[in-house]
Automatic annotation (TrEMBL):
Residue ranges constituting the RNA polymerase sigma factor 70 region 4 type domain according to the UniProt record: 126-171
InterPro entries xref list: RNA_pol_sigma-70-like, RNA_pol_sigma-70_dom, RNA_pol_sigma70_bacteroid, RNA_pol_sigma70_r2, RNA_pol_sigma70_r4_t2, RNA_pol_sigma_r2, RNA_pol_sigma_r3/r4-like, WH-like_DNA-bd_sf
Coiled-coil portions: none
Organism: Chitinophaga caseinilytica
Protein family according to the UniProt entry: Belongs to the sigma-70 factor family. ECF subfamily.
UniProt domain RNA polymerase sigma-70 region: residue ranges: 26-91
Transmembrane regions: none
Name of the protein in question: RNA polymerase sigma-70 factor
Keywords: Sigma factor, Transcription, Transcription regulation
Length: 190
């Protein structure tokens, strides 16, 4: 029986026996379908190719330990589906990091370009900090300006560490939102 006439499970049996040619045939048989599926979800040709290649490499490297209980097609489809979800999650995380970097770098870039504008941004930040509720403002200043740890702040104020974390997170969210709007407005006005 020639390799091209073999069923998926027959080819899989050969792959488990380290047959590279059988793996190549399975790869060729499923590559396009898996790629199209990933592309429809990710909308990036390069990322879709990476997803399918990562799955196929993992299948090859783990071939001896993989047990397929349904069909090979269903197994590969599920593997690509999970890897696609992971890819989207990684991209979202990276986008979040890039957004945080832009938010922290933007004032620094402005500072280097014009000290007067940097002072204006500092004044805007100070106004927004002053608008925080008193306890939240106190926690924020102790952490950001006095550099106390969460534990130290909790001890100083007689509250739980979780309360301090909650206050910090809320203050960061409020400040980020207000400062982002103020910085963008300032940039367009400058």
């Amino acid at each position: 029986m020639e390799t091209c006439e073999l069923t998926d499970m027959e080819l899989w049996g050969q792959v488990r026996q380290d047959d590279g040619a059988a793996f190549r045939q399975l790869f060729d048989r499923y590559w396009e379908r898996l790629y199209v599926y990933a592309l429809n979800r990710i909308k990036s040709e390069a990322d879709a190719q990476d997803v399918v290649q990562d799955v196929m490499v993992r299948v090859w490297t783990r071939r001896a330990s993989i047990t397929i209980e349904t069909t090979l097609a269903a197994y590969l489809h599920a593997a690509v589906q999970y890897e696609t979800i992971a890819q989207v999650a990684r991209a979202a995380k990276t986008a979040g990091r890039n957004s945080e970097l832009e938010q922290s770098i933007l004032p620094d870039i402005t500072a280097f370009s014009d000290p007067l504008r940097y002072k204006e941004l500092q004044a805007l930040a100070e106004q927004e900090i002053a608008r925080l509720p008193e306890k939240m403002r106190q926690v924020y200043r102790l952490r950001q300006e006095e550099h106390y740890s969460v534990k130290e702040i909790a001890g100083m104020l007689g509250v739980s560490e979780q309360t301090v974390r909650n206050q910090l997170n809320t203050s960061y969210q409020k400040l980020r939102k207000q400062l982002r709007e103020a910085i963008l407005s300032a940039i367009f006005l400058w």
